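## retry 2 of 3
previous attempt timed out at serialization; input unchanged, resubmitting
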Amino acid sequence: MLYTGILILINIPSVFLILDIQKDIENTVFVKLTNQSGLDFSDITLQGKFQNLRIGNINSGSSNVFNYDPPYMTNDARLYQKPDNLFLIVTHSGTLDTIRFPTLRMRDCKHLTIDKNLKIVDQ
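## retry succeeded, writing output
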């Protein structure tokens, strides 16, 4: 009985750590962004009212995987996502283009492609 009690007491910090990490992952959006535009993007930034994330560069035909936390608020012990209009600010050959980014919900995992018309297509 003493051995069981000690094992339970040792595992309590681990359970709190796992639950905290699980909460962070559960509220995150994961995106694989593929560049099929024929242009090499030297810089990409995801920008919105509540979000500003530098993604980096993506050459033509390659992909980049990133994640972000959509803004949310707690109300009545439930999570509600705050509406945010997101845009990709893309730099290529010294030109800045703005591409509308789709609204993704918490826990989404998407594969998005930028096509030749600089539009985002859901795969």
